[in-house]
Design a protein that fits this description.
Blueprint (H helix, E strand, L loop, with lengths): L2 H32 L4 H10 L7 H38 L4 H31 L3 H17 L6
Helix pairs in contact: 1-3, 2-4, 2-5, 3-4
Length: 154
C-alpha cells in the first residue's frame, strides 16, 4: 500500500506530460491554421503586375473588390481567433467531452473554409474583370505561383 502513492504520482506525472505534449503539438498546428500564407495578397500582386496591363478603370474595380475582400478577411479572422480559443478551452477544460471538442473543431474548420471560399471568390471576380489577353497573362503567372508555393501542398 505504501507504493501506491508513488505509483499514482508517477502515473499522474506521465499523463500530465502526455497532455502537455499533445496540447503543445495541437497549439503549434493551430497556429499554422491561424496564420496561413497570404495567398490572396499574392494574387493581388499578380493583378497589379504590369504584365497584366490593367486600365485605370480595372484598377479601381479590383481595388473595390480588394477592399471588400480584406474587410471580410478581417472579420473572419476575428471569428477564427474566437473559435480557436473556444477549441483550446474545450480541449483543456472538457477532455472527456469529445462531442464538444468535435463541435469546436468543426466551427474552426467551417471558418477556415469560409475564408478559403472568400479568397476563391475574390480571385474569380477579379479575373472576370480582365480582358481575354489579360486573363491569359494572369492565368500563366497564377499557375506558376501556385505550383511553386509549397504552402499549398502542406
Amino acid at each position: 500500500m505504501s507504493r501506491l502513492p508513488g505509483n499514482l504520482a508517477l502515473i499522474l506525472g506521465a499523463i500530465a506530460l502526455g497532455l502537455a505534449a499533445g496540447f503543445g503539438g495541437a497549439w503549434a498546428g493551430l497556429s499554422r491554421v491561424r496564420d496561413p500564407a497570404p495567398f490572396p495578397q499574392t494574387v493581388s500582386a499578380l493583378l497589379d503586375d504590369s504584365s497584366v496591363g490593367l486600365s485605370a478603370t480595372q484598377h479601381a474595380q479590383i481595388d473595390a473588390l480588394r477592399r471588400d475582400y480584406e474587410s471580410e478577411r478581417k472579420a473572419s479572422g476575428a471569428r477564427l481567433q474566437i473559435a480557436l480559443v473556444a477549441l483550446s478551452q474545450a480541449v483543456v477544460q472538457k477532455p472527456g467531452r469529445q462531442d464538444q471538442i468535435e463541435a469546436a473543431a468543426t466551427l474552426v474548420d467551417g471558418i477556415v473554409h469560409q475564408r478559403r471560399m472568400a479568397s476563391i471568390a475574390f480571385i474569380s471576380n477579379a479575373r472576370a474583370l480582365l480582358a481575354e489577353p489579360q486573363q491569359a497573362a494572369f492565368d500563366k503567372a497564377f499557375l506558376q505561383v501556385v505550383a511553386n508555393d509549397h504552402s499549398y501542398s502542406q
